[in-house]
């Protein structure tokens, strides 16, 4: 949101997740406290499949990433079973009107002149190879590299990566795997 309107919303506002919709987050409102960008209210983003690992613009595209994505059984099952969702999310990301119509479902007083284009984020998503569903929980890849490494994969949100509960799980799993006393 433009700086002069950032206080219209002062807390996180998220839509209720659509059960079985594949990707839980929709257009939402998030206040920031980041000193680098200053205090602001971010509207969005939605969730679209991007065609490059660091696709920060709609025009970012990588043939290698497209091949990797189309070769991923889980990702293709997800797209096939969520085709309408995939198309509507991409459309909403490309259309300011569609994006703001979705935002107005949460905060009806938002007008076009209150927002400006900002930055986007890229989040990795894991898909089940069995049914193509999004894996919303973190996973431990235990005793990798001949038992020397514990990988924590698919931490799907900043709240997860900053969670003390997750840190406790990682520490106790590592203690068991590496026989720490």
Automatic annotation (TrEMBL):
The UniProt GO MF terms for this protein read: (S)-2-hydroxyglutarate dehydrogenase activity
- This protein is called what? Uncharacterized protein
Q: Which UniProt keywords apply?
A: FAD, Flavoprotein, Oxidoreductase
Cofactor(s) for this protein?
FAD
Q: Which domain of life is it from?
A: Eukaryota
């Amino acid at each position: 949101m433009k700086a002069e309107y950032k206080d219209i919303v002062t807390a996180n506002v998220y839509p209720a997740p659509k059960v079985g919709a594949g990707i839980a987050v929709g257009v939402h409102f998030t206040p920031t406290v980041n000193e680098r960008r200053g205090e602001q209210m971010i509207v969005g983003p939605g969730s679209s499949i991007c065609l490059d690992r660091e696709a920060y613009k709609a025009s970012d595209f990588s043939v290698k990433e497209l091949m990797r994505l189309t070769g991923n059984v889980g990702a293709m099952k997800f797209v096939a079973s969520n085709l309408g969702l995939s198309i509507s999310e991409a459309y909403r990301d490309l259309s300011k009107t569609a994006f703001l119509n979705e935002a107005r479902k949460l905060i009806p007083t938002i007008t076009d002149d209150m927002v400006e284009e900002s930055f986007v984020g890229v989040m990795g998503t894991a898909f089940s190879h069995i049914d193509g569903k999004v894996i919303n929980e973190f996973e431990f890849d235990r005793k990798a590299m001949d038992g020397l490494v514990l990988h924590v994969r698919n931490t799907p949100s900043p709240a997860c990566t900053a969670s003390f509960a997750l840190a406790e799980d990682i520490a106790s799993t590592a203690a068991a795997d590496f026989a720490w006393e």
